[in-house]
Amino acid sequence: MTRRFIFAALVLAAGGAFAQSKPWDHIGREATPAEIKAWDIDVRPDFKGLPKGSGSVALGEKVWEAQCASCHGSFGESNEVFTPIVGGTTKADIETGRVKNLVLGSNFPQRTTLMKVATVSTLWDYINRAMPWNAPKTLKTDEVYGVLAYILNMGDIVPADFTLSDQNIAEVQKRMPNRNGMAFHEPLWKADGKGDVKNVACMKDCPTEAQVRSSLPDFARDAHGNILEQNRVVGPVRGADTTKPPVKAPLGSAPRPAAVVAAAAPLPAAGGVDVKALLAANGCTACHGVSNKIVGPGFTEILARHKGRADLESYLTQKIRNGGSGVFGAVPMPPQPQLKEGDAQAIARWIAAGPR
Amino acid sequence: MEQARKARRSFMGKALAMGAGAIAAGQATRARAAEGDPAILELPEHTRGLGRPVAERPYGLPSQWEANLQRRESPGLTRVPQASVSFTPLQGLFGIITPSGLHFERHHQGWWDIDPSKHRLMVHGLVKRSRVFTMDELMRLPSVSRIHFIECGANSAPEWGNVALPTVQYTHGMVSCSEFTGVLLSTLLDMCGIDRKTAKFVLAEGADGSSMTRTIAIERALDDCIVAWGMNGEMLRPENGYPLRLVVPGVQGVSWVKYLRRIEVGDQKWATKDEAVHYIDLMPDGTHRQYTGIQECKSVITTPSGGQMLLDKGFYNVSGLAWSGRGRIQRVDVSVDGGRNWRTARLEGPVLDKALARFNIDWVWDGKPAILQSRAIDSTGYVQPKINQLRAVRGTRSIYHQNAIQSWRVAESGEVFNVQVY
User: Fold this and answer.
1) 3-state secondary structure of B192
2) What value does the mean pLDDT take over residues B81-87?
3) Mean of the per-residue pLDDT values for chain A?
4) Fewer Cβ atoms within 10 Å of its own Cβ: the N or the C terminal residue of chain B?
5) For B315, nearest residue in chain A (alpha carbons)
């Protein structure tokens, strides 16, 4: 009996010693199961983390048209805002698990998501965590299954009457067009890996033609703005004035361009809302040009369509926040729940005043 | 762009352009003054008056004359500013530290200025004790401070095929270097009782809209990863992950998860979107290399560089940056004749592991055309390759890992152009 107590005391002492091995070990607290569940949303290629649920292609199409098509196009083909999701894969690719259009020599012009992604879990995980783009994490589990089913159907990976679920997603994995297209290149994963591209540090009379093989054409000279305004006004160099053709004459035979400090963009009127900044901050300019259509109509086109309305400002305000469809073509505008009423009103007023 | 300008330069007006013009006019007048330089003979306003008071600007700002050095976007690079890049103006910087306000940005779903009292970090998975930490608690822990570069995997990507960009700001501006302060990730993992037998990887996750996730090897996690709140002696900037981010030295910037909220310890890689759809390298045979996080050795001359004009013939201190995700910079060589002959540059110091290193070298320009190149060698002996050597192995569609020797052509006019030379 005594021996057993002594042994127990030793065990406790050892445990205590471990628990106090560092003076900061008590900092922080236990995570509750509910907390872990709230944040532990990742889904692995072995589908660890995948929630139970299901969604049909038909459900996905409904969600897609309401929330996804404005950026990704009705058939996932759009490259207007983000790179396209669908296209470039064939039935033969689905059989082999390799995408022929990825091999050098193909003239297919895009690299769509379905051409690249090898693991269907990646798509489930990303749709769930990050979509819709301006209102992430608002889709229900079954809606995520549905949207993914719709994407897979558009890529001919599943039929139109398919319902994707946690029970059958592993079977779908076997049909991913690029499932065999990934190569693990350990030298670029390991910090101590060896490079696969070799060069020799020759120092003198090195074997090179030293030919200029590529340069920027003169017409692209100011595509990034006037470089004169992107360099310091003091020091050993100045920025070149790229609003003018390059100087041909040798140094010293032509006058030096004067250096300038870029003027700030004028501030909006005191108390006024900077609508241009609002449009950029809320992603409006991804779909709407000022006068040109991008995905949706340009702002001047909107004004032209609705010019006669007596309630123009309030009509536009609610359209901006609630979304809508049918007024301009087939692509619906998704709701913008993140946009405050006052901000939507400012945008509506700006459109009504004649945007520029 | 407008927002950045206003935030940084709200005190500016168009008069500055006239003021700067006056500098040039002053220079022109100098040569004609028989009795001496008017800048000396005529006492300037700042010598004849009272200067400004203390705390007029509680947080100090750059000189108004420095307004040209700003982060900038590359027009047409992306369609939406929330999923885009702003480039660091490397052409105008000195030393190895990037000013926090000029640190490049890369966002996938926009940035936020988060209330730090509401930010939490969770550590869970293959650990004995899943833990939640507040910012208060994390900042009580033993801290380290280290200087490291961060580089977006797509830095210099547009140049894989041919010259596409005019200046070093756009060719190389997705790299920055800061001193980061925080607790080692290994400390947190030990506090949670990591299961070292089964733990092979950790998943890092952010708290923003994209809740970005990346798989990190356990060796990296236990080696030099930092859970950081500090940057250059103050808290992180919101664009750089305030109040908490992961620092993964030597690894692509996409792994340096901003607004860090969760670390999960696991036994398999996760194939997240940013390691299964993006940040995968397309090879000529149609396969993609996956999990290629290490940034290989690279360098670039920043002065003189593309879009700049030399003021005169004669001596120049050619200056640039070099870095390697595998260790420190051992040596940098510079050529002024397109790679036929090279001389070894000075390293300014400090030269640190997985940090930018500044090099410089003497050059006397005789007014004839020249092609400037730098070539870095890191502590593993790896020699920075030419673009044609990269293409021979990887083709032109890799997007990532473009660490080629950069060439700048100096014309007789003194203007410098981006070119590819080999």
Assistant:
1) coil
2) 93
3) 87
4) N
5) A236
Note down the domain range covering A310.
258-325+333-352
Chain B residue numbers touching A195 (CB-CB < 8 A): 296-297, 382
Range B62-89 average pLDDT: 93
ipTM of the complex model: 0.90
pLDDT at site B169: 98
Chain B CB contacts of A129 below 8 Å: 210-211, 213
Q: Within this chain, do residues A148 and A55 fall inside the same structural domain, yes or no?
A: yes
In this structure, is residue A247 part of a structural domain? Answer: no
Q: Report pLDDT digits (tens) over A177-234.
A: 999 999 999 999 999 999 999 999 999 999 999 999 999 999 999 999 999 999 999 9
Report how far residue A149's alpha carbon sits from residue A160's, in angstroms, rounded to the nearest whole number: 9
Rounded Cα distance between A271 and A254, Å, is 48
At A60 the pLDDT is 97
| Single residue among A139, A173, A207 that ends a domain in this structure | A173
**Among all residues of chain A, which has the CA nearest to that of B293?**
A189
Residues 6 or more apart in contact with residue A260 via CB below 8 angstroms = A228, A229, A233, B17, B20, B21
Q: Which among A29, A31, A116 has CB closest to B288?
A: A116
Of B340, B341, B359, B334, the residue nearest B349 (C-alpha): B359
Give the pLDDT of residue B33: 58
For chain A, how many helices (H) and strands (E)?
13, 6
A276 to chain B: which residues are within 8 Å by CB? 2
How far is residue B302's CA from residue B69's CA, in Å, rounded to a whole number? 14
**Is A80 within the bounds of a domain?**
yes
Which of A105, A138, A173 is where one domain is finished? Answer: A173
